[in-house]
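ok trying this again, last paste got cut off
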Amino acid sequence: MRILLIVFFGTLLAFSGDAQRTSIGINLQLSFPQGEYKSTYPKTGAGIRFNVLYRLKEDGPMSIGGEFGYLVTGSDTRYFDIYYGGFYDTYKISASNNVLSLAFKARADLLPNERPVKLFIDGTIGGNLFFSSINIERETYFGNSQYVDGDNSKGYWAFVWGPGIGIEIPIDKRRQVAIAVKGSYLFGANTTYLTDPYIDNNGNIYFNQHESKTDMILAELGLRIALSGRRYRR
């Protein structure tokens, strides 16, 4: 995992070094389980996705890059009043199921660069890390939360790949910023994951464990930003 992270972020830094051909995407994402995954855990996930794309030729249609994503597919939160040191403190206990994504991408623009609206297809290949988290926070008098303790379950990787299609619409005169809408179907390999986080009245935390393929549909909405000072051509 450490080697994969080093290669992934090293590649992104290399791409971002040539701002003239580089753009970044920041998207909100929803995940919709499919197939075996849907039968086991039919919950919609929500999160964010960040990517960097490097255009292979100045005016060419092909780009390559990488992306990082984070999804929360289920959560539970409970508050408990605990007497300690002569005072009552309120503690918040949270449990969640999460998916961390690391992937490489290749993209092809389908319309000429002269067109303001960009229609594109892309391919994704990488991995999804399924893990669960527990966090304990103390609620202060001023309404803030102070982190007390937390833990993550063992993570399980699943190989993932799939196609996507999207559209980008510029929103500024220089065409450096565009609204991006995209949908993808990602085929996920078989793996183990936890579901249905539950916290009982005594503060005990429970999960259910499953194993299946992890296919999903991703819907994304966000912004594409050209890093160079030139007009947005993607």
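PB: full thing came through this time. The mean pLDDT is 87.
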